[in-house]
Every structure is written in C-alpha cells, then in structure tokens.
Design brief:
- With 252 residues, the chain is mainly α.
- The chain is built from 9 helices and no strands.
- It has a domain at 117-251: Serine Threonine Protein Phosphatase 5, Tetratricopeptide repeat.
Length: 252
C-alpha cells in the first residue's frame, strides 16, 4: 500500500510539475505578446508622428505654391485691367476729338455759307476736313483760303503745306509735291513741309529728291526725329540704285 501511495504521489508531483511548466510557458507567451503589442503600438505611433511631421514640412511649401500661383493670377488680372483702361482711354479720346472736330466743322461751314468766312477761317475748315480725312472737301476749302489770302506770306506757307498733304493723301501726289515746293519756297525753314515733301517724293520713288528734302529739314533741325532716320534709310537706297553696295550690306 505504501508503494502504491508513493507511486500516486509521484505521478501527482510529475503532473504538478508539468502544470507549473505550462503555466510558466503561458505567462511567458502572454509577456511576449504584451511586449510585441507594445512594440507594434510604439512603431505605429512613430509612423503616425513621422507622417504628421512630413505633412507639416510639406504643408508650408504647398501654401507658398498656392500664394505664388495667386500672385501670378493677380498680376495677369492687373495687366488685363491696365490694357483695358488704356484702350478705353484712347477710345474716349478719339470720340472726344471726333466730336470736337464735328462741332468745329459745323460752325465754320455755317460761316462759309453765310459768306462771312475769312481766309483764316477757310484754312481752319480745310484743316479740320483734312483731319477728318475728307480730302476733296479739304482741298476745296484750302484752295479758297489761298485765293482769298490777305495775311502774312509766312502763314500762307502753312496753307500750301496743308493743301499739299491733302493732295498726296488723296492719291494726287504730283499736285501735292507742287504745293509743298511752294510752301518751302515761301518759308525755307519750314521743317514740317520739308518732311512732307520728302515723304511725297519717296512715294513716287524719287529717292534722290526725297533724300535732299530730308537733308534740308535737318539743316534747320539737326535732331529732327522724323527726318534723321528717313535720311539714313534713303542714303542706302540711293547707293544701291547707283550700284554701290553699302558697308552694312557687305557685313551681312
């Protein structure tokens, strides 16, 4: 009986020992799982923190980009508004000038119809018609002003200049040249008439005469912004027609 009891006790001891080992193993597994779970949570938390930090770094760059694009859009808008403003200004200015010319023409025409118009008023009416591009009417009133002129010959040169321009713009260049020649004959220092004469000669391809006219203008006004570049261009044309190749053409 004693032997049986020892055997039983031995089996119990073995069973208890196995149970203890199982318990310790289970505890270790629980600890390992806890450590793994803690590590996973720490890793997840670190990942979220890193992502948040990266977003914070990228967010200011994104905001700067948005501000830059907004600035470009505002610049284009301001430029467009500026162009519209300039265009509107010129349109309004043209309308006002046209209205002023119409009123002036109406008043002067009434004086002409009444027969009380002086040579100066006829000249003014011809000049208004010239600006309005009514060339036949301008020619008519300017010729009447010349026929009726009783003032200073120096002022008469302005009438001949206006008449010459009217003829040239109306396609009657030869007649225009004749009137412009008279204008510079009456007033040799009339730079505007010399420039108009040079332009008229160039239209009919008489480049030598045109060159001479612009050179005459520069004699009285060396820094004239119209005559100087036209003179230089005509020098090259005259040399080419003579068969002489200019230095600039050689370099090209």
């Amino acid at each position: 009986m004693r032997c049986v009891s020892l055997a039983v006790n031995g089996r119990r001891t073995i069973q208890e020992s196995a149970s203890g080992k199982d318990a310790r193993n289970s505890k270790k597994d629980l600890i390992s799982m806890a450590v793994f779970s803690s590590g996973s949570m720490s890793l997840l938390t670190w990942s979220n923190s890193a992502a948040a930090s990266e977003y914070e770094k990228m967010n200011p760059v994104y905001e700067v980009g948005e501000l830059f694009e907004l600035g470009i859009q505002l610049s284009y808008l301001l430029l467009l508004l500026g162009l519209l403003g300039v265009g509107t200004f010129f349109v309004i200015r043209q309308v006002l000038v046209r209205r002023e010319l119409d009123l002036s023409a109406k008043e002067l025409q009434e004086q002409v119809r009444s027969g009380d118009a002086s040579a100066t008023e006829l000249f003014e009416l011809g000049a208004v018609m010239l600006r309005r591009k009514f060339y036949p009417a301008a020619t008519k009133y300017l010729n009447q002003a010349i026929d009726k002129w009783d003032g200073d010959d120096q002022d008469l040169a302005q009438v001949y200049n206006a008449l010459g321009v009217s003829y040239v713009r109306d396609g009657k260049t030869e007649k225009g040249i004749s009137q412009l020649e008279t204008a510079v004959k009456i007033q040799p220092g009339y730079v505007t008439a010399w420039n108009n004469l040079g332009d008229a000669y160039e239209k009919i391809k008489e480049y030598k005469s045109a060159l001479k006219a612009f050179e005459e203008a520069l004699l009285f006004d060396p820094n004239n912004k119209i005559a100087r570049p036209r003179r230089d261009q005509l020098k090259e044309k005259v040399q080419l027609y003579k068969g002489v190749v200019p230095l600039k053409s050689k370099q090209r």
